[in-house]
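ingest -> fold -> write
write: protein_1
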Amino acid sequence: MSTDATARPTSAAATALRNLREVGGPSLQTGRRRTIYRADTEVVEPTAYPGSLIAVLDLRRDDEVERVPHPLAATAGYQRMPLFDPSSAIESADAAVQLDEQYIDWLERHRATIKIVFRTLAQIDGDALVCCSAGKDRTGVVSALLARLWGADLDQIGADYAATRENFAERFAAELAASNDPERTRIAQNVVPEIMINVIEHIEGRYGSVEGYLTSIGLTDDEIRALKH
């Protein structure tokens, strides 16, 4: 189950991206050789994005891209990179209901495409953007792994994840009011620190570290080193 795919009107451009920010929070990447941003995808002008970007990794499915084309799709650095394996009709197991359960399931079920995302990030030498529809689920998982790899503590990771809840307060309220399945919508909107903290603790309990997870999905030592620096 993906929770990023809420349909949005495309008739008028918004003035800003509500969920655009630096991965890990405003100070985590200070002094690093580049900045990686995370964001939702809306109908905005290209100028809504940082002007320093040399790469955009769009994690959305084909149907999402068709519904809302990315504003930077015409730039040389834009890359379609669906996090969910296009050859699989299954995004997460039926038993994975809560958000942390879904994310943990994705980390195992979609290892091949997660490897492509991180391998690509390792090769980019400059500022980059990782995005999906809402910028909270698929983007949130990638962002949390990156932040932990850079040394963020669990509280930082939880706070960065939960920032979406405040950023999307009006949107979440509107979605809940219009929902035909309020219980499912409340689960999808349960963007609290504990969700992503649970995911990182699971990874570290099973693989020893985020680095251990990335090694297990096929990244090389050189690629992990490039991601860390």
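write: protein_2
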Amino acid sequence: MPISSILLGNKENQRVLLFGVFGGQIGLYDGRYTYIRGCAKPDNNPLFSYTLMPTNMRGFFPQESLEQMQIAPGMRFTNGIPCLKIPTEICINPFYCGSLLFDIANDPHQENNIIRLPIEAEMVEKLKSVLRRIDAPSDVFERLGLEG
């Protein structure tokens, strides 16, 4: 089903949507709530790039990162092919933004963060389930402060 169909309200076979920016917060939308999970620690670690190429969007990885790289076993997104696991840093640390939770049905413009409500625990379970389903590495769970 095309994403536009889901966004326009077609709920047939609707699932959750996972979104985010590498090394930043990770978001989950379940048709009612938008949950945006921040990293657990101020250093935003562990953070690794999993790649078949020793480059990133801005060029080559720094020598210090390449000296620490490891070969990671294949995963779903590498079609089972082993890849490079390279320690990575990002320019903007998402720690200070924290986690956010919005009730889209009652707050479609996402203006009122309701993170303290019990619904966060349900959204955390959904997020962990999706991360397991897409074969996310264990360091993703650790960086986000989620028990795998």
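write: annotation protein_2
The beta strands are 17-20, 26-29, 33-37, 48-51, 55-56, 59-60, 70-72, 83-87, 100-103.
The two ends are 29 Å apart (CA to CA).
pipeline exit 0
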